[in-house]
Amino acid sequence: MIEIRGVRKSFDGTAVLDGLDLDIPRKSVVTVIGPSGSGKSTLLRILDFLERADAGTVDFGDGPIDLTSTKASDIRAVRARIGFVFQNYNLFLNKTALQNVAEPLIYAKGVKPAEARRIAAEQLDRVGLADFADRHPSTLSGGQQQRVGIARAVALNPELLVLDEPTSALDPEMVSGVLEVIKQLGRDGMTMLMVTHEMRFAYEASDKVVFIEHGHVIEQGDPKRIFEHPQQQRTAEFLSSTNNVLVIPAAQ
Fold first, then answer.
1. Do 63 and 112 reside in the same domain of the chain?
2. Which domain of life, per UniProt (predicted)?
3. Contact 67/47 with Cβ under 8 angstroms?
4. Is 237 a domain residue?
5. Same structural domain, 154 and 183
6. pTM score > 0.90 for this model?
7. Is 245 inside a domain boundary?
8. Looking at the structure, do residues 55 and 127 belong to the same domain, yes or no?
9. Which pLDDT score is estimated for 173?
10. DSSP codes joined into one string, 166-225
11. Could you tell me what percent of the chain has a pLDDT over 70?
12. Closest C-alpha among 116, 148, 115, 154 to residue 129
């Protein structure tokens, strides 16, 4: 179990996260949903020290790490265990797909170049891009670029894969390929924490769904219960307001 405890973050005096606690079971897909501004992406950025928390800890099973820490050792300890998939890919435009995946292994993990290239090729094949290894990002579609980003994160063999709105920058026709890759990673036993507005995907691919608002967990649980039988009125209101949610499957 990965345990997140007491995370607080304010911007200009406004609390975005207000003592949030979250458990992420190993080999599970935990999806965070909620309205814009509810603190979803801020939580993910705090976990990778891209934002500094005002309070809070994360524990991968060997003791809590302070998310307010400025110690390089604490930051390295967390980042070594987390793979981050960004909304806007964050690929090096002057590098090929293979280089984008291989070079973090070389420079962050100390993997020898030949082995890094082998792992990178394997991960590109895993996301369906074996034939695109020598292509630069500018020649790839948005969906293909995002799959390179996923391959880059997974190649680092993280304990936790964090995905921040992985389909938000994609045209609708590109979404399904990326979501299928994420589903397969879940089936392969990857531990994932994801923020998404894709409600159908959250329903189908998650082991646990967490609804947050105003920096608090309002409701969490099995996706079937959350989507079909929410216990909190605010959860029901949010789900009914989304345009792409199936909420309750059609009766057979």
1. no
2. Bacteria
3. yes
4. no
5. yes
6. no
7. no
8. no
9. 65
10. TTTTS-HHHHHHHHHHHHHHHHTT--EEEE-S-HHHHHHH-SEEEEEETTEEEEEE-HHH
11. 94
12. 148
User: What's the CATH code of the domain at 97?
Assistant: 3.40.50.300
Please tell me the predicted confidence (pLDDT) of residue 79.
86
Question: 215-226, pLDDT tens digit by residue?
Answer: 889 999 999 899
Residues 6+ apart with CB under 8 A from 172: none
Q: Are residues 56 and 102 in the same domain?
A: no
- Regarding whether 167 and 99 lie in a shared domain, the answer is yes
Q: Are residues 182 and 136 in the same domain?
A: yes
Q: Which domain holds residue 105?
A: 80-193
Query: Each residue of 147-180: b (16+ CB within 10 Å) or e?
Result: bbbbbbbbbbebbbbbbbbbbeebeeebbebbbe
Give the three-class secondary structure for 156. Answer: coil
Both tokens of 45, joined, read: 């950025």
CB atoms near residue 207 (< 10 Å): 16
